[in-house]
Amino acid sequence: MKILVIGSGGREHALAKKFMESPQVEEVFVAPGNSGMEKDGIQIVNISELSNDKLVEFAQNQNIGLTFVGPETALMNGVVDAFIKAELPIFGPNKMAAELEGSKDFAKSIMKKYGVPTADYATFDSLEPALAYLDEKGVPLVIKADGLAAGKGVTVAFDIETAKSALADIFSGSQGKVVIEEFLDGEEFSLFSFVHDGKIYPMPIAQDHKRAFDGDKGPNTGGMGAYSPVLHISKEVVNEALEKVVKPTVAGMIEEGKSFTGVLYAGLILTEDGVKTIEFNARFGDPETQVVLPRLKSDLAQVIIDILAGNEPTLEWLESGVTLGVVVAAEGYPSQAKLGLILPEIPEGLNVYYAGVSKNENNQLISSGGRVYLVSETGEDVKSTQKLLYEKLDKLENDGFFYRHDIGSKAVK
Ligand code: AMP
Ligand code: GLY
């Protein structure tokens, strides 16, 4: 069978690599992919993730047996709807179901309607009432632009000035809708589930590191590193999340006529009052995928085929140890990342997933995005894995790049 993965980042590299392990998979294509993926024998296809017609045509011409969608932009652009119309097998939510990620307002309304625990909130489409609400509630508050923002449309405001300027920014641009939320305090974690037809197959949890710099300082990013599993968050807490968050949401989406197929990403926070939902995404997380999927022992292609056919999939995961991944970003990320930086030589045996990279005229890999590559390592526990990983990473010539030095540290405190 031939597989097509849609997207171009580290998450898609991890997906493609896992599909390559399947004995029934002959070829894995990624559209548009990135030049770093070719090192692993993955074929990159020069088609944008937003060109539905060309993706459908490619899948038909190549006789692709299964297409897997990585990024939310492609989902919101209706790639799943286009494939289904052409009767091609694809795994991901259609445009309507992807609204769970595409509109924070829609996600909040689903949570409210189906009793899913989340922060209290109000939605505004103009500045004046939003400012009045701000005055009434006081800080801390969280301000979220409605719509896709790649993890960067959120301001956690601890003072009124920050809150006001975030609102002013949102209403000065083309974006004209905002969700203002109660601030939740606690530890965050990500729970992914394969979902189809109301059936839910959860994966081991992961923990992302959203802030740019060590000690959770600096601006929010798409994610600077992750590890899985997160053993200090108990099985009971994960069960609570499944029962109170994932199950009612999946059932609620069916009730709304928006049945969800794909990977449902619940971004959760463990507060003093139990688990609450920060957000939903309609896809795998990046960089969490790079630490979750390598731990899957089962054949991913077969898992997806079984789920789509309504059969029970076999899902076996590594039972011991931990997988840790550190993102190497170009200086300036997340606002103005340096482009064209030459990547360091990667020694044999270092496990790398490429993201924002392309090739220069000398065939060298160069940075073409903010998050450039991720190095991962699997070891016995977080502390020893950090040591192994950082020893290798610190040796690379990362001039012009930066990375966090404390990925996983919440697990060793
Ligand atoms: P989101 O894009 O909704 O995932 O938000 C990005 C990040 O902002 C989250 O990972 C949290 O760290 C933070 N955040 C979002 N909503 C809240 C909230 N209600 N309370 C505290 N922190 C939040
Ligand atoms: N790691 C956060 C995300 O994928 O949205």
Topology of this structure?
Blueprint: E1 2-7, H1 10-20, E2 27-32, E3 43-44, H2 52-62, E4 66-69, H3 72-76, H4 79-85, E5 90-91, H5 95-102, H6 104-113, E6 121-124, H7 127-137, E7 141-145, E8 154-157, H8 160-172, E9 178-182, E10 187-196, E11 199-202, E12 207-208, E13 211-213, E14 217-220, E15 225-228, H9 235-255, E16 262-271, E17 274-281, H10 289-292, H11 300-309, E18 322-330, E19 351-354, E20 357-359, E21 365-367, E22 371-379, H12 382-395, E23 401-402
Parallel strand pairs: 1-2, 1-4, 2-3, 4-5
Antiparallel strand pairs: 6-9, 7-8, 7-9, 10-11, 10-16, 12-15, 13-14, 15-18, 16-17, 18-22, 18-23, 19-22, 20-21
Helix pairs in contact: 5-6, 7-8
The chain binds adenosine monophosphate and glycine (GLY).
Adenosine monophosphate binds next to strand 7, strand 8 and strand 17.
